[in-house]
Amino acid sequence: MKRIINIAILLLFVIAAQAASFTVEAPRQVVEGNKFNVTFVLTNGEGSNFAPPEVTGAKLIYGPSVSHSYSSSWVNGKSSSSSSEEYTMIYKATGTGKCHIGAASITVGGKHYATKAFTIEVLPSGSSQPSQQTQRTPGAPTQYSDPMTQTADKEVSGKDLFVRIEMSKPRVYEQQAVVCTIKLYTKYQVSQFIPTIQPSFDGFLIEEIPMQPSLNKVETFNGQQYMVAVLKKCILYPQQSGDLTITSGNYDVSVVQFDTFRSIFGTISKPVEKDLKVTSNKATIHILPLPEPKPASFTGAVGKFNVTTDVKPATGLKTYSAATYRYTILGTGNIKYIKAPEIKFPDQFDVYDPKTDVQVNDGAGDMSGKVVMDYTFIPQYAGEFDIPDSEFSYFDPDQGKYVTITVPGRHLSVAKGEGQPSNHYRMKNMDIRPIKSGDLGLKKSHGYIVDSWTYWLWFLLPLLAVIALLLYYRKQLKERADVRRMRSKRASKVAQRRLKTARGFATRNDRSGFYAEMLNALWGYMSDKLSIPVSELSKDNINAELEQYGIDEQLRKASMDLIDKCEFAQYAPELASGDMNAVLDEAADIIDRLESVKRGVRS
What we know:
By secondary structure, this protein is of the alpha+beta class. The chain has helices at about 1-15, 425-430, 455-480, 485-505, 510-530, 540-550, 555-570, 580-595; strands spanning about 20-25, 30, 35-45, 45-50, 55, 60-75, 80-95, 95-100, 105-110, 110-115, 120-125, 160-165, 170-175, 180-185, 190-195, 205-210, 215-220, 225-240, 240-245, 250-265, 265-280, 285-290, 300-310, 315-320, 325-335, 350, 355-360, 365-380, 385, 390-395, 400-405, 410-415.
């Protein structure tokens, strides 16, 4: 019981330490006619509905101006952090006596906070009591709005000009967006600003938010007012867990000070430039790992998303005609980096790799928009087919858990079209033949098989076949020491004969026959050239064998692109375009270039 009480007391202290507070900062005395600041500070809270105070004895000149700040520290393995919002009002004392400042109020998390009313003493004009905001005596604090405090004999300290890296959150999950803002705070006019070493963002993917830096904003930081320019703002997506640090940057800055002297015409201020070297702070953020186990349908999406699907054309699908299955992901998060899901299409469809189109906007703190993935498919047979239901999972950082969406499947009715199944489809399915059904012509027979001479012949035939094969193999060894080389040497001749046949189809403007013969020529050439069996022919196998053969990447890509072009043109003729003679020339050129490469030597 004593241990439970101690833990409860400790929790109360922690909660009290992080509780929000609303206070006011103002001078005790001002001089009549001078300006003074009154700053209302909200600590450890996000406020709304700020209501300024009622003031007598002073006139409001400007305000409220709002500024935000956040700080964190890590000492001896323990972290602490604090945030603040400052609402600054600038007044001008209008008469001697008392200036009454009423209570200001604000709402934090549905709770109402208010400051206490107070009184400021207003001294007569010309009084020896200096104004805390506008005094101009030697050694007075530098004010951004008062050139008389920016004299050239002053040293520009780190409190007068600095660059600060701010993070929107102290901790996030992997792939969760965090906004990084790099700001310049200065009390002087800046004539030149040159980054010499930019901060590095190791461990993050970066999406920069375009902006033009300019000193057009006033903020209060640590009780002092500065002119502020946002140098850089970007959305970061952490790629690993743990503590990630954004390193400090170095900058060459030239500021303008004033050399003041008296003349017969009065006091004259001459601008003087001073060169400075400024180093920003470092910023560390704690990255939480994504929970385990991850759903099987999780492809890296972090944020809030939804999924829609569509088929074009929606009706009238026909065999050998191209169609599109559109998979659209909408929402906010790391939408630009989501991987394409694997869709289970019917085996009777020829499916191509998806094409992705990303349309996003960089919001205030994350990317939002949509990513469209188009899967092109060509039905090879008529009938009724289904694209089954699927799942899409994403991690919601606000809930701290995975959310799984069920994506409804699609029923497709395919009518008979003109054409025949593609080579790609036939080769994919040629290793397993359909089971024969119907009348198999089986008959019953009686008798002893050992009484038949054919029974003994089956013992003799294998022996004779082995002897014949040995003799034939021995003869072949003598005639052709390298079978693969001989086959590879005649690959070009066979391909040229097929290309000649294809040219006849081109002359007759028979596109279907032309592209069918082109595919036979290309697949046959690759099979002979690379010694790949027809049953094992695939684009991946061909590409791997070409690379091992010594073919460079450009020529490999050109070969694969030509095969894709011919396949697509044969089975989607309404989408095909171009000169058939140009395709013939391209095929002849690729075969010549492949023949010029010697095995094991890269061209």
